[in-house]
Design goal:
Blueprint: E1 20-22, E2 25-27, E3 34-39, E4 44-50, H1 54-69, H2 72-75, H3 78-94, H4 96-107, H5 111-132, E5 140-141, E6 147-155, E7 158-162, H6 168-181, E8 185-189, H7 196-208, E9 215-217, H8 222-231, E10 237-241, H9 244-254, E11 260-264, E12 270-273, H10 279-291, E13 303-307, H11 308-323, H12 343-358, E14 362-365, E15 380-383, H13 390-393, E16 400-406, H14 409-417, E17 424-428, H15 432-441, E18 446-449, E19 468-469, H16 474-479, E20 482-490
Parallel strand pairs: 7-8, 7-10, 8-9, 10-11, 12-13, 12-17, 13-16, 15-16, 17-18
Antiparallel strand pairs: 1-2, 3-4, 5-6, 6-20, 11-19, 14-15
Helix pairs in contact: 1-8, 3-5, 3-7, 4-5, 4-7, 5-6, 10-11
Bound molecules: adenosine-5'-diphosphate (ADP).
């Protein structure tokens, strides 16, 4: 007997919070202004959200400052901070379907991805860092002379966090986890395209019992709200994830107040397939490594290097797989690919597709808009791509894969590293020695071997070169949120 599995469609969630969170109150903006957030699958306005600018940022920073200096947070034991973080993780888990649906509504990502990736990873990240909250410690240092010397790791203070729209809630968790575990307070600015899940998560944080002012949320635009956060003298640190061009502006603007800065930026990650690889696994990895999240991943494997002797067979099978991808309503559990996040991204990606063709690459599948409503783009594959073409050099941040042919290890290593980026790379081979040689030779913060996009809260992530400064996740992520203090006490002999 055969059973028919009905496609299941999730409902759009109720929108609960659209205000600016300062202390424990969701409010209108000081200016009274709002902005629209749009459903990228339908191009319809979801709702209006309070538009924060410098005045709202100032109020939020004051609330965060007060919570840091004098509030219960500053006196709380690490273990109790950890308990609150675990409570928030539990609440996020309880509301998993609602939060996942908010992501799908605001960002357009398939509900399956939001439920199976974004939410579980975000919850896991909070729990991982909750475990660190009572384990932040210094050293005793044996210095010369009659002294007792030790170090302490203290919170930096008020942390400004500016995040993008591709993984809205996961970026919240990556930013909040280490900041809260180490006792900082937060003013976060979600991306203007996707403010809703961050606001709901902040509401859950209040429900969990975080003291007012520990987490403040100012939705708004980069050049206004974001810039005000960067310039504010009472903000001690900025953690930013987004484009390199924005990071350069932030670095300049932060110079006056010498803020601590950590950046997680773009990439043009090489995904390298050797002829001795398990080709079926590599094909699946190439598809996932690029098309996951509509290609909107900073670590997308957008330069696919395939060894000459298997190139044609590999390309043929990959095209077949790519054509089978299911595009459509992101609330449908059958959907694998949703729309791009907004019109600007859609236009930018279509521009790259045009340039790829104009510069002589072969568009072997895709290349068009999908449907006539929403910012959908067909999964697109280019062959005959050369290193100097725009589609091989610049970050497209969309479902556009460039395939490049190579002959040997030395050549592919040189070409893979010939980029201003260094976020991630992958190697597919059955030769263990080659795998480690490549892993060491590639100038990237993460190298995956025979896998792609494997993330874990315990594994550090970040970029070499123009892909970033500092590392997120893991123990390394904690270092970005503490100041190291050395205490030296005279101990004259009695
Ligand atoms: P993307 O192309 O992914 O939107 P951006 O770097 O433009 O990348 O945006 C990432 C985040 O940075 C968003 O929250 C955005 O509002 C913010 N942002 C943009 N410009 C600035 C700026 N000048 N100062 C501070 N934040 C900014």
């Amino acid at each position: 007997m055969s059973s028919v599995v009905e496609p299941r469609t999730f409902a759009a969630p109720k929108i609960r919070q659209t205000g600016i969170l300062i202390g424990d109150e969701f409010r209108s903006s000081v200016s009274g202004k709002t902005f629209a957030t749009v459903n990228p699958a339908t191009e319809e306005v979801i709702c209006q959200v309070a538009e924060g600018d410098a005045a709202d940022v100032d109020l939020a920073v004051r609330a965060a400052r007060a919570a840091f200096e004098t509030g219960p947070w500053s006196r709380m034991d690490g273990r109790d901070r950890g308990r609150l973080m675990n409570k928030l993780a539990d609440l996020a888990e309880k509301h998993l379907d609602e939060l996942a649906a908010l992501e799908t509504l605001d960002n357009g990502k398939p509900i399956n991805d939001a439920r199976a990736a974004d939410l579980p990873l975000a919850i896991d990240c909070l729990r991982y860092y909750a475990g660190w909250a009572d384990k932040i410690k210094g050293d005793t240092v044996p210095i010369r002379g009659d002294y007792f010397c030790y170090t302490r790791r203290e919170p930096i203070g008020v942390c400004g966090q500016i995040i993008p729209w591709n993984f809205p809630l996961l970026m919240v968790a990556w930013k909040w986890g280490p900041a809260l575990a180490t006792g900082n307070t937060i003013v976060i600015k979600p991306a203007e395209q996707t403010p809703l899940s961050c606001l709901r998560m902040a509401e859950l944080a209040l429900e969990a019992g975080f003291p007012p002012g520990v987490i403040n949320v100012v939705p708004g635009f980069g050049p206004t709200a974001g810039a005000a956060l960067v310039a504010h003298p009472q903000v001690d640190k900025i953690a930013f994830t987004g484009e390199g061009t924005t990071a350069k502006i932030i670095m300049r603007e932060a110079a006056d107040t010498l803020k601590r800065l950590t950046f997680e930026l773009g990439g043009k990650s090489p995904n390298i397939v050797f002829a001795d690889a398990d080709l079926d696994a590599a094909i699946a990895g190439a598809e996932f490594g690029l098309f996951f999240n509509q290609g909107q991943c900073c670590c997308a494997g957008s330069r696919l290097f395939v060894e000459e002797s298997v190139h044609d067979e590999f390309v043929e099978k990959l095209i077949r797989r790519t054509r089978q991808r299911v595009l459509g309503n992101p609330f449908d559990t059958e959907t694998q690919q949703g729309p791009q996040v907004d019109q600007a991204q859609f236009d930018k990606i279509m521009g790259y597709i045009d340039r790829g063709q104009a510069q002589g690459a072969n568009c072997v599948t895709g290349g068009q808009r999908f449907g006539n409503r929403g910012y959908f783009i067909e999964p697109t594959v280019f062959t005959n791509v050369h290193d100097q073409m725009d589609i091989a050099r610049e970050e497209i941040f969309g479902p556009v894969l460039s395939i490049l042919k190579f002959k040997d290890v030395a050549e592919v290593t040189q070409r893979a590293n010939n980029t201003c980026y260094g976020l991630a790379a992958a190697v597919w081979t059955r030769d263990v020695q080659k795998a480690h040689q490549m892993a060491h030779a590639l100038r990237a913060g993460t190298v995956w071997v025979n896998c792609y996009d494997v993330f874990d809260a315990a594994a550090p992530f970040g970029g070499f070169k123009m892909s970033g400064i500092g590392r997120e996740l893991g123990e390394a992520g904690l270092a970005n949120y503490t100041e190291l203090k050395t205490v030296t006490m005279a101990m004259p002999p009695r």
